[in-house]
Amino acid sequence: MIRIPQTILDAMVAHAREGFPLEVCGILGGTPDTVSEFFPMTNTDASNEHFMMEPREQFTVIKQLRSKGLAMVAIYHSHPETPARPSEEDIRLALTPDVSYLIISLADAAAPVVKSFKISAGVVEHEPIEALV
Q1: Residues of the chain whose pLDDT is less than 50?
Q2: pLDDT given for residue 97 in this prediction
Q3: CB within 8 A of 21, min separation 6: which ones?
Q4: Considering its fold, how many domains does the chain have in total?
């Protein structure tokens, strides 16, 4: 299970809506299984089908997290028109071990869906999200 403050879940959905119709992406930091930091990133691919984080932004975020004694807990991105499940490309590019992969679906713009997954060596496992108030 991954624990995420409701304010951060709301911020992720807002980021996805702001970036629509393109995919957005970002990093969530904190302690194992509990998110406390939200970092929206630039999708350098500027695509509605895939994303690539800006490397300098990634480096800066990781440096900031380490300076606070925190770690990268999750990577998130949006699916503007498809369900909140990992695509074949998402699975193939899930190369960071021990992080959660969150997907925000805007397929139904009135009711966005956020789901979390653990992905390792091509194996996908759904991970429950606990929203912290």
Answers
A1: none
A2: 82
A3: 48, 80, 81
A4: 1
